[in-house]
Amino acid sequence: MSMSARSRSRLRKHPSLSSDKYTYRYLYCTYCMFCTITILALQIQKCEALAKASLVRRIRSIIPPKFPFSLPWYEKGLEFSCTGCSKCCKVDGDVWLAPEEVTNIVNYLRNENDEDVTSIDTFRKKYVRAELSPEDGDPSQSWMCLKRNDGACTFLDPLGQCRIYDVRPVQCSTYPFWPSLLEDSEAWEEESVVPDDVAIENGTDDRHWSPEHGGCEGIGIGRIMDTVAELDEKDLKDVDLNILVQELQQEAIIVEREEILAKRKAAKRHWKRFPGQDIKMSTW
Predict the structure, then answer these.
(1) Which of 102, 214, 212 is nearest to 164 (CA)?
(2) Which of 57, 159, 204, 221 is most buried as measured by Cβ atoms within 10 A of its Cβ?
(3) 83 Cα distance to chain centroid
(4) Residue 143's beta-bridge partner residues?
(5) CA–CA separation, 145 vs 101, rounded Å?
(6) Nearest alpha-carbon partner for 177 in 61, 92, 262
(7) What is the DSSP string of 93-142?
(8) pTM for the whole thing?
(9) Is the pLDDT of residue 8 over 50?
(10) CB contact at 8 A, 168 and 256
(11) Whole-angstrom Cα distance, residue 90 to residue 181?
């Protein structure tokens, strides 16, 4: 008698096992279903073309939020448009450059005829306030922290423009699509701020930007509030604000899911590479 046949014989003879056979079948079917969904979800992550299939989207939409393989809460994109306020360059915090970013910025400044920057050493003296070197001590692989001038990034010019915008660090280019801000809709909304010239009504959760807490005017309602703020009292009397808000929402710039995921991934990869564990946990 084979092992499988002997096992089946014991199952028939043992009353408790026989009475629970339906339970075992149910658990087995549940396990098979779980494995099937898991394999399908893994394929979704590997194949973007498959991820766009409507059937796959419907299957993933069944999975509750925050569970593995569920659709991100920003599946339909997010309203965001940079207002050019430059406040993200004035937050109380540090900007760390990866070794390749240092090289790119140095080359860019040399092409822009920055006479004070002829090498990484001269760049370090003029623009860097702190440095983390690798264990082997190779200075070419150091991470560098930019200086701040009058509470702002050293590369922010008097007009509020970034002098190295074309080669700005990942930490800057991926904001506000950082993993910490995309964790859920609440974290995203908490990062939104109202323009300084717009009054905040009592009893609301709205806030203005501050160096200590930061925030972004371009998230969600920032653009709408800015437009309303430009209207004078005479215009406000002749305008239905509900209609105005609806029109602005329809015209709002939507950042697609693919771009959000790409920036989130770049920010997360950059953060993981950062060597200073203590600094990493206390910054972006």
Answers:
(1) 102
(2) 221
(3) 18
(4) 132
(5) 11
(6) 262
(7) S--EE-HHHHHHHHHHHHHTT-TT-SSHHHHHHHHEEEEE--TT--GGG-
(8) 0.69
(9) no
(10) no
(11) 18
